[in-house]
Specification:
With 429 residues, the chain is an alpha+beta fold. It contains 14 helices and eight strands.
Length: 429
Amino acid sequence: MSVIRARPWVAACFLLPALLLLGALVVYPIGYSLYRSFFDAAGTGFVGLHNYGEIFTDDGILTAVKNNAIWVTVAPTVATVLGLIFAVLTERIRWGTAFKLIIFMPMAISMLAAGIIFRLVYEQNPDRGVANAVWVGVHDAFTDASAWPGARPRPDGELAGPSGGPFTTRSTVSATDPAHLPLVGVKPQDVADAAEAKAASPGTGDGVTGTVWLDFSRGGKGKPGVIDPGEKGLAGVEVEAVKDGRVVASAKTGEDGTYSLPPEARGAQLRLPAANFAAPYNGVDWLGPTLVTPAIIGSYIWMWAGFAMVLIAAGLAGVPRELLEAARVDGASEWQVFRKVTVPLLAPVLAVVLVTLMINVLKIFDLVFIIAPGATQENANVLALQLYLSSFGAGANQGVGSAIAVLLLLLVLPVMVFNVRRLRRETRR
């Protein structure tokens, strides 16, 4: 210390490289961004605070500000809470280390790679997107799928109705004449394993019978409205008999497409409900305008919950076990020990994690840029992405981009000041 006081130039020599780097990489960009924010797109005309006014009047930038507020509120909080839960639970399981490794592993993946992964996870097509594959699987486990999605009657045939159903016969049916209901619009591969259609016989006991089949023969050899050899029966189709707008009887077709209705169906019109032909459930539009921001936040939490868990677990290892045992001896439940002892002791660590993640999400760019499709990128927009689009996108205006950069700096500063003050308080202790 005496050498430094006697020769301050020695300290200056050691600090000079760091100061030069700090000035070149931090101070100069901040100063230039502040200066540039007062000029127009060309950088030659002084516009004063016009660029800052545009930030709070442009709809796209306001959406970015709103989404940043959602990010800062939700993502750090959820990631910290999950990290705390994982850290506490892994202390009590045998394979805790392996579990921590699995949870922390996403941190080894770059934002670019994570964005590509979750772009595939959120694909709308259940055959490609994992999220919709799971969602559709759960949905279909509790809801019956339609029998023949997309099937429809022939134009000007006996059946008529709006696209997608319901389809109703133009005339009433009788017991003596089987009511055959031809349909088209089914892919041949969908009926490859179906049974051959069979012409129903007249009903016994004054009942109404008929056949629902795919009225299509390969090579165009068949006749419309006639059950030709090789044509397939459509099984599982609901057939309703309707009189005066009321369903008086219903039945489902068998493997060969035949059905049988009781005598109450005589003199009724037959109706094939729309549920027979509804398009298959295709899952949730995760990257649509409504869910795109929560979906991207979910991918961020997947990455950073492991970071929170590791830091909190390190802090948990330093918690005196005597305090926890003393609380249990005094009759506290595990929940009370966790809430009134563990969490307060971990408060400094939780603050570090929360503040770090808040600063991190204010700069979020990669995930939003990669995951959000072009159609909904405006809905998922954040300030860092808007900075890039304003500065280098179509109609680039680096004056507005610099103003957004200054706004981001102003948003980060309070968090940084809080963090510095907290560190000083801990140092004094």
